[in-house]
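Milestone M4 deliverable, item 7.
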Amino acid sequence: MTNPAPEAAVPAAAMHITASKVGKIYPAHDGEVVALREVSFGIRAGEFLSMLGPSGCGKSTFLLLVAGLEAPTSGEIAIDGQRVTEPVTDVGIVFQEHGLYDWRTILGNIMLQGEIRRLPLGPLEVRARELLRRTGLEEFAAKYPHELSGGMRQRAAICRALVHDPSLLLFDEPFGALDALTRVQMQIDLEKLWLQRRQTVLFITHSIAEAVALSDRVAIMSPRPGQIDEVLTIDLPRPRDKAVVASKRFAEYCDAITERFMARGIIQY
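Output delivered:
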């Protein structure tokens, strides 16, 4: 399998996000926890990049640093060449927990983005209802979160992240709590939504198959302290339909990533 070109070969102007020797240390009662150490790589504008690694390797920490919700201990993260020093606004974030407010309807939860950002609510509602239609939630706009299944609530959370049309999307294990069948459908739905606008995506996952199914590239992380072991290009056609997922090439990518984790002792048979 051909390895991706070195990051240095990619023009800096093509990068939406750049990380330069990023480190993150958390204080603890018995010392310090080094979550990330000298992470340097870039995410290209409009690409879908997954960060894949074992629990505790700093994937979620890196996402929070990109969002500006935490500050690195060393190094820096830049978006479009501007160093991130405060929470990023041109972003949509989806976490493993949907984070919907129980007292607001599904449409009301999605429209909250516009209220907080003081956007014109008329055009935003048109966009919100279109997203609900495309995710199969149109008839549930007036329902409350407790009236929906877990997968439906997570679809609503994705609609909320997309409604203001941000250039950057951050997903932190968004399908981790879902059953296997719902998870596969959510992957299909997310790819369809992303293909419409091609925002830059950083997607955190523990699933090798999920990373291969969704990504243009996969950043493979080492155990803590997290570093980038390799960034692997996934050269598969889109959409990643049943034929693609069942292909020999798809299996080869999954096997190649599995072998890298085996070499690290992360997966042991």
